[in-house]
């Protein structure tokens, strides 16, 4: 065991020869310096700067902040009591429960799928790789209504597998499985799209180092790959979750809108609104808006941590 | 002993290596030297088992390991960009290879800890075990990577451009340090470099590669003084190329002397001090006017700009289609 240990001290490396290690402090300092320089270099006039900033703020206020405030104020218009009773109404409660169940199934599925796809795309060479990359983006480019119709076409009563499913008494369309399928389809790009660029940038060196040190595939994934991608993964999962809970179009097509059974929160909001139950509609909508706000905060926190991590490792 | 028999590798249509034969003795320090695209890194990765040859054999000791994965070859691999696990401390990085062993082969926690400390001492990073890689300098990170590779007690150490990402001063220190470490440990080691100076300074033998083939294998002295091919003469050290009859004459800048009569005429267009010598640059008087570089002893008076001088080689290597001659 001691065979490789030096008998006598090796020529010492002079400490002064090493460049100063890059700490967070020096990084921050460099960043600030570069920011100051770039401001000077581009040098728009003060008027232009102010106008642009004001324009952005007004736009943001009108299109984002105002609607958000409206949702909450409408929900609470007739007092907290009405709000609470609208949210705890059995149908609303069922919708919330279903939305949580759908998210609880589709998010983990897409997490596994996203990691597997990103791993395959970034670590291996195989034919059909570019097709896979394109396919991952498909749900983003297809209208959600079409996504929903695909499943009706496949599993609906007159669909390809409809007769077989009916014969075996399996209900997919107008039932929870259909909603899960549509949601999984709609949300599957989120995790993969977050991870692919990240894993591409990180390359294969770390994994190769791990296997050269004797780690097996699972150990390499668990101890090396996963920690390297954890922030990106969490970020992707967060976005995936927000969409899974908020998806309307595709889910609307396959759900059948059965109150208390196949209504998710967004569908429930629509039904209430169409019935002129504004307080009820906005109460449930405010929960969805709240989810969006929480996601946003979590996302900002992650981005902040994420930047710090990658920044510090360079 | 490592033996490579007829290693061939293609990437798609691109022939990365063709029919490489090489024998490396126990305890040797070998440099794979070549420009980018010469196949040196691919060859190193094939020896490691991180890449697999299309045909040919890799023998480590007496064992044919051609199909073995990297984990079964007993090699330590050091990556150009260190590939340290950024979320683990330095000590955890070094201990990784021991921690991932199967339970029955795994030393106890205390032994692993002691071993990691011992290795950190070897690479002169005592007391930095609790740092994260991001908190170390480049040279320190490279030494952590080395300690990590040594932790699994490899029979063979492979280093891919080990100094490539470091600045000049650190490079030089680390180079000398690595040579001393190799002397003390006697571990058979192969490193890849595109820097001929690095290869000549460190290696017992240099393998000069170009376009997926081996151009020459020899001691630093041999590849410098008796280059086997025009490529080696050009790539290892500086050399002036002169056309002559059916061949090419290569002359090192320090093998040219200024004479009063005879030789070739050169029009001097630049003179500057290059370390311990005068570097004289000029164009040859013959038609086509090739650029010529001459090194003169610092004690001599250099020629003036625009002056026409006469030069003559003291020593040269001639490459013809029929063979190579070294002459004085």
Provide tags for this entry.
heterodimer, A: 314 residues, mainly alpha, disordered C terminus, B: 328 residues, alpha+beta, 6-stranded mixed β-sheet, 5-stranded antiparallel β-sheet, 8 helices, 36% strand, elongated
Explain what this protein looks like in three dimensions:
The complex is a heterodimer of chains A (314) and B (328). Chain A contains 14 helices and no strands. Chain A is mainly α and 314 residues long. The longest helix of chain A has 35 residues, at 278-312. Chain A is globular. In chain B, a hairpin with a 2-residue loop joins strand 9 (205-210) and strand 10. The longest helix of chain B has 18 residues, at 168-185. In chain B, helix 3 crosses helix 4 (138-150). The A-B interface holds A 1-8, 10-14, 17-23, 205-206, 208-216, 219, 223-224, 227-228, 312-313 and B 48, 50, 69-71, 75-77, 79, 81, 83-87, 96-97, 100-101, 115, 118, 122, 124, 133-140, 145, 148-153, 167, 169-170, 173-174, 176-177, 180-181, 184-185, 187.
